[in-house]
Design goal:
alpha+beta, Beta-Lactamase, two-stranded antiparallel ribbon, 1 helix, 2 strands, 22% helix
Length: 58
């Protein structure tokens, strides 16, 4: 799954917050930390807490 694919699974009501957090994550040295609803494989939505930390090699 690529970064570009993730937003298609996020609930429409949560998408603006998710995209704002993702954009901020890409431009700062701080973790992504957001709770959103994502579409489960069988069609319903589930809440997830997503946390990501960038690790840069020298």
């Amino acid at each position: 799954m690529t970064e570009a694919m993730i937003p298609q699974f996020v609930h429409p009501d949560d998408l603006p917050e998710f995209l704002a957090e993702l954009a901020e994550f890409q431009t700062r040295v701080a973790p992504l930390d957001v709770e959103v609803r994502v579409r489960h494989a069988i069609g319903h939505y589930v809440w997830i807490h997503m946390r990501a930390v960038a690790d840069f090699d020298a």
